[in-house]
Amino acid sequence: MAEPRVLAIIPARGGSKRLPRKNILPLAGKPLIVWSIEAALQSGVVDDVVVTSDSEEILAAALPYAVKRQCRAAALASDNASSIDVVLDAIDREKAAGTRHDHVILLQPTSPLRNAADIAAAYAQFAAGPGCSLVSVCELDHPLEWCGTITPQGMLTGLDLAPGKRSQDYAPRYRLNGAIYISTVQGLRARRSFFSDPLLAYTMPRSRSFDIDTELDFLVCDALARNPNP
Predict the structure, then answer these.
(1) Residue 137: how many CA atoms within 13 Å on its side-chain side?
(2) Where are the beta strands (DSSP E) in the chain?
(3) In sequence order, which residues have a C-beta less than 8 Å from that of residue 20 and are 6 or more positions away?
(4) Measured between alpha carbons, how far is residue 207 from residues 116, 172, 180 in Å?
(5) Any idea where the domains of the chain sit in the sequence?
């Protein structure tokens, strides 16, 4: 049986309201999107890497690398466009060009601290596991029981505090960190989602789980990228 062919997709819109030109801002000396491109290429588990964007500036940043560049239609670059539509469009365009893929890895460029080793380890776990999807997660900073809601009157409710219980006494909980999503192409088409049952989880440290949305996020990631072992 032939080895599965793996496609890594890096989607990068040109528009960003909170942080303009986010995907090409220089992070520790390299455009933000380049961190994901290099990680994918160095992972050793992907056959092809596709950068899909509506921005010529972003596509130009990918030009020096051995990746495929797809100019995304405007309809797939709007605020209402779903990431699944973007991923399936990239897969379909590869298929139309004569390239078949069995597995797909979605790498958001806003997770620059996710590295090649993370991608390789996550894919190995996916390939060996029983599920047809895997997502990356990290442990919550604090117990979920310490979280609640605030009423219109300013009252904090919903806490589940046990007397004398320390944070380490609670069972660890995990959240999506947005860094890695993996699925079979067949399963993704059928579900239109990276979330299957059973769903595998690849655990990453919080220090590599930052998802850049604001300028503060960017500054934190820039500092960590310059000094990865503080």
Answers:
(1) 16
(2) 6-11, 26-27, 30-31, 48-53, 68-71, 103-106, 133-139, 149-150, 156-157, 174-184, 200-203
(3) none
(4) 15, 17, 15
(5) 6-139+174-222
| Cα 120 from chain centre | 14
pLDDT, tens digit only, all 230 positions of the chain: 679 999 999 999 987 778 999 999 999 999 999 999 999 999 999 999 999 999 999 999 999 999 999 999 888 877 778 999 999 999 999 999 999 999 999 999 999 999 999 999 999 999 998 878 999 999 999 999 999 999 999 999 999 888 888 888 889 999 999 999 999 999 999 999 999 989 999 999 999 999 999 999 999 999 999 987 75
DSSP-derived 3-state class of residue 168: helix
The Cα 50–Cα 13 span in angstroms is 14
Taking domain 6-139+174-222, whether its CATH number is 3.90.550.10 is answered by yes
Between CA 57 and CA 23 the distance in angstroms is: 10
